[in-house]
Fold:
Amino acid sequence: MNIFLKLSLFALLVSFASCKDSFVDVDNPTAISTSSYPATVSDLEQLLTGVYGTQHATGIFGRAIGPYSTYLWDHTTDLSWQGSPNWIQMGQNNALPSDAFLLQIWPDLWRGVQRCNTLLAGVERVSKTASATDLVSVNLIKGQALYLRAWYYYYLTTFWGETFIVDGAGGDKMGVPIVTAVADNLAATQVPRATVKQNWDFIIADLKAAETLLGTQTWTAATDKHKVTGWGVKGFLGKVYVFTQDWANAKTYLSNVIASSGKSLVSFDVYKNMFNGQNEFNSESVVELNLNVDLTYGGVDLSMGSMIGTLIAPSYVGPTGTPIASAWSNVFPHAKNIARFGFNQGHYFPQGTTSANIANVDQSYIAKSVAARANKTVDPRLWVACLQPYVDSMVVAGAKKPISHYLDVTEIDMEAWSFRKYINLAGTELEVNRSNGANILWLRMADIYLLYAETLTHTGDNAMALEYINKVHRRAYSLPADTPSAVDYKSLTDVTKAPDDGLKNNPLRYERWAEFFGEFNWWFDVCRWKIGPQEAAYYQKIRGGTIQFDPATDYAQPIPINEITANASMKQNPGY
Structure:
């Protein structure tokens, strides 16, 4: 659905709403006057469309969230492309204030905040003259605007807050500025950093206000599917309470979503394809970012699609048996991730192979891999998240092509697989002009279940915590989620598929890693559990060099140098 049709107009309106005569003294005869706009519910809906659209701007889910940020910091990816030094540095946990990708993410998140504030100001204006009927719609718009502002602040706080709150500590560290109105002069842009606790309190206050306004609101019209529901707000609040270790409130909200939202885990057959433009807005989805294939360039908020698939696009076997990139194909799953799913079937090329060619594949490896998949001796989610070279295939111009060793990975003995989540299974990314339409499953019931399980371990119910971990685990093995099974973990310290000390005897952490691999979640778990050094020790290196994780500085990213220059009140994070 074309929910972003009027974004160009919205961008024009915001640019004028953000300025006064002291900024510009040139009349624009084509501009809508801010003295008369917004004036109606329809005007507010137009502005709301732009606020949602900003979620997939270039610096957010249009391109940067994942391949240019979290995927690098948590080592979801390694880099096939070695031509960008700052990309390599991010993968080594050595981001710099001048990092080109952070210079995209920071302003786009703040643009989301600005657009929320512009909309909220419009809401107050329209409310003064709205009829009782219109006021109902205005309040629903206000609830969504507050939710969205909390959403943008969630990323600003988790990316740039000096630390997470752990065991009640860290709340006095530096967060990000709190801005509730659009600046109309230079002085209003010189805002100092709030504390981490103030940021989280602000997020919670916005979400609580949104909860009051939205209640249990759901949306049935096709043109409204992208809008957050009341249950989405409650689920987000539950997640925030877990992140701030407010276990009592987390339990209340998460249990409410589980018991009363009507949401539940889908079957494995639905789950395995719901990240590829199929099975959208299903019963497991709590918050979903709606995208569509867009034949414009993509990767900006004026487009309806996302370019993430272009960056992570698979490599396939070409006419001569060697790899071909299906799009940009810049990043691929870090080889250590394959083993973490329990895959130990050897390698597709025999030792001593010097050329990545399908003719050199060890056929006994193929047989063992097929058997492991059929017998589920490897976590089945490996093949939901990744495409296996010379076993899986993809569609290119209507024809199936085997997946290859990832292009430009010269280490022939490396497990150079391809991503499967958030790529186009029906063709290459270039066939949709680099603008993938797969929806982003931002919050789903598997997340709610595992957050609830974590909460229960902190509120004295380990038995029920284990049950909710097992519900997610059973579904991964195509079993009924609510029925005890042979694959169940027997304790909270039972053995998992992971070979490393960090996840080997921790089913809760393993399930969060395996279930959401490639879904932009793991970095935040690493930060809030403070397991960066252990993760760095497991992954060791990327193709561009050794991972160098410093727990004193590397949980927070550097404030971009442009912001330090523009805002005299801004302080840099320690260590940068």
